[in-house]
Amino acid sequence: MDRAALADFLRRRREALRPEDVALPPGTRRRTQGLRREEVASLAVMSTDYYTRLEQQRGPQPSQQMLASLARALRLTTDERNYLYRIAGHHAPASLSASPHVAPALLRVLDRLDDAPALILTDLAETLVQNAMATALFGDASKHTGLARSAIYRWFTDPAERSVYPEADHDRQSRAQVANLRAAYGLRGPRSRAGDLVGSLQKASGEFAGLWDRHEVAQRFEDHKTLIHPEVGAIEVDCQALFTEDQSQTLLVLTAPPRSEGHGKLRLLAALGLNRFTEAAERQGLSDGPERG
Q1: What is the 3-class SS of the chain, one letter each residue?
Q2: Cys-Cys crosslink for 73: which of 3, 44, 144, 238, Cβ 3.0 to 4.6 Å?
Q3: Which residues of the chain have pLDDT under 50?
Q4: How far apart are CA 69 and CA 73, in angstroms?
Q5: d(C-alpha 271, C-alpha 234), whole Å
């Protein structure tokens, strides 16, 4: 780990960004060039103190998960991300599709979506980043680790995962989950995370094993679906998916027609998400203390 290079790289990348680059309001009386430390820390979902220590060459070696969060927050290109990993003492991920790095083009679109649930997924249905409305709708995906990071794995191993869909839709969703995994497996091969998922699910779920043997392949999302939220109830939404060129990542956006019941429920969901984000920010401010910009 090259602490001096890491600190300098983080500082320079932070100073090169502007609030509008990451969908933040410009604000007034900014005392620092570029983004503030606490803004980067918030985008990377870490404490301001932790990030500050990295810039001051005092922090511990960041984990690969932490580096992935920093790469997203600082909007790094693939080359910049690889450099970040190396100076932090880690091997750079072998490829974009095998790493938690988010395609910058998808991030730029996500940054501008604040009135609809939106999230970026890998081809294994691992949530890489989600906006406040997606968190309000689906919950915080960052809490999952290991194979459970994949929504496909959770669908067949955690009954609570299915509560977001009406029971009548479960069979169709099961087929879609397996067909999506089959497409990723075909691209990645058996000696990959897709292969690990398949092997584990074949042992853990008879339902999955039976569906896997059907050899259905698809990489798509239903255009229209009903989702169940514990506070808002059933929400009818339309789904739009934007794929990266190599099909490894997807930006999924959920909307409803104007003046529809679904649209009204999404607006209520936005209010719930904003309230929770504000409460979390206030708690973070209390724990981090005053600004050290």
Answers
A1: CCHHHHHHHHHHHHHHCCHHHHCCCCCCCCCCCCCCHHHHHHHCCCCHHHHHHHHCCCCCCCCHHHHHHHHHHCCCCHHHHHHHHHHCCCCCCCCHHHCCCCCHHHHHHHHCCCCCCEEEEECCCEEEEECHHHHHHHCCHHHCCHHHHEHHHHHHHCHHHHHHCCHHHHHHHHHHHHHHHHHHHHHHCCCCHHHHHHHHHHHHCHHHHHHHCCCCCCCCCCCEEEEEECCCEEEEEEEEEEECCCCCEEEEEEECCCCCHHHHHHHHHHHHHHHHHHHHHHHHHHHHCCCCC
A2: 44
A3: 96-98, 277, 280-281, 284, 286-293
A4: 6
A5: 17
- Based on C-alpha coordinates, what's the Rg of the chain? 20
d(Cα 237, Cα 91) in Å, to the nearest integer?
41
CATH label, 3-93, candidates 3.40.50.2300, 3.30.1330.40, 3.40.640.10, 1.10.260.40: 1.10.260.40
Question: Do residues 13 and 80 touch, judged by C-beta distance below 8 A?
Answer: yes
Architecture of domain 104-276: 2-Layer Sandwich (3.30)
Instruction: Give per-residue pLDDT as tens, 191-216.
Output: 888 999 999 999 999 999 999 998 88
Give the Cβ contact number of residue 273 at 10 Å. 19
d(CA 6, CA 88): 6
Residue in 85, 63, 90 with CA at minimum distance from that of residue 10: 85
Identify residue 133 by its one-letter amino acid code: M
Give residue for tokens 């229209």: 224
| Full-model pTM | 0.66
- What are 262-284's pLDDT values in tens digits? 999 999 888 876 565 455 445 54
Nearest-angstrom CA–CA distance, 281 and 285: 6
